[in-house]
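Predict the 3D structure for this chain.
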Amino acid sequence: MKNIISLLLCVCLISCDMDTVIDLDIPSHESVLVLNGLLDTDTNTQVIVSHSVGAFDNTIPSFINNANVLLYKNNQFIDTLSLDLTNLIYVNYYNNYTGGSLPMYYYKSDYIPEKEAVYRVEVSYSDYTPISAETYIPGDIVLYNI
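Done. Predicted structure below.
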């Protein structure tokens, strides 16, 4: 009898609707510039500039094609990167379980970075706060014994 009562109590608890709704007050997202790139000693300098979207936004990020992109080596100006319209690339994205691809172009310089130097890329665009990214390219690693 005790087992039957316990079983009925469990069935009643499981069958009860226990949904909890929580309302979140999420502030609106203020878009910022996004800089993606890779500096390597065996290829020219290339970066992509786009803008951010909020985590809960339904908007799709887009490429910014008229930004001012500057390259510095050890705090000395090297070059202004220009838009390379000859090499279209597609960046994949996922939005609400669906996907697509965004057409983007590189900002490019013919300058090839050198090892043991600090590089900085600065990006400015009229509607956004300017951004910069800095990296150090180390020297070669010498292996004496494998």
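The radius of gyration is 26 Å.
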